[in-house]
Specification:
Number of strands: 4
Structural class: alpha+beta
Number of helices: 3
Strand content: 15-25%
Shape: elongated
Number of domains: 2
Largest sheet: 2 strands, antiparallel
Radius of gyration: 17 Å
């Protein structure tokens, strides 16, 4: 979801019109060593166009935060629903409860 969103936003002609790069590290714990699954992503402040030109970010933030958040969340929930429907997450046993939680996001 994260890479799909970032690459789509970067390729958008209204935004950077180019190819982004990204390095991501998956962490499965927080500061107190409790389960806290999250990504740390390092993304350059611009994109390379098809002709090889650098297109820098147009503001302090690479992309609008709310739009980016909605897109990532939507992609994640969509892929999670697909995995549940395909039976790839057998530990999740109550489909109605799962649907209720996902619908609230």
């Amino acid at each position: 979801s994260v890479w799909a969103t970032l690459s789509a936003f970067g390729a958008d002609a209204k935004r950077l019109d180019g190819q982004l790069g990204m390095t991501a590290v998956l962490h499965t714990w927080g500061q107190t060593l409790t389960r806290h699954v999250h990504l740390h992503c390092l993304v350059p402040g611009g994109a390379v166009s098809a002709s090889g030109e650098w297109h820098p970010a147009k503001s302090t933030y690479l992309f609008p935060v709310r739009a980016l958040s909605r897109h990532v969340r939507g992609g994640f929930v969509s892929r999670l629903r697909q995995a549940i429907a395909a039976g790839r997450l057998p530990r999740l046993t109550d489909p109605k409860e799962i649907a209720r939680v996902l619908d609230s996001l």
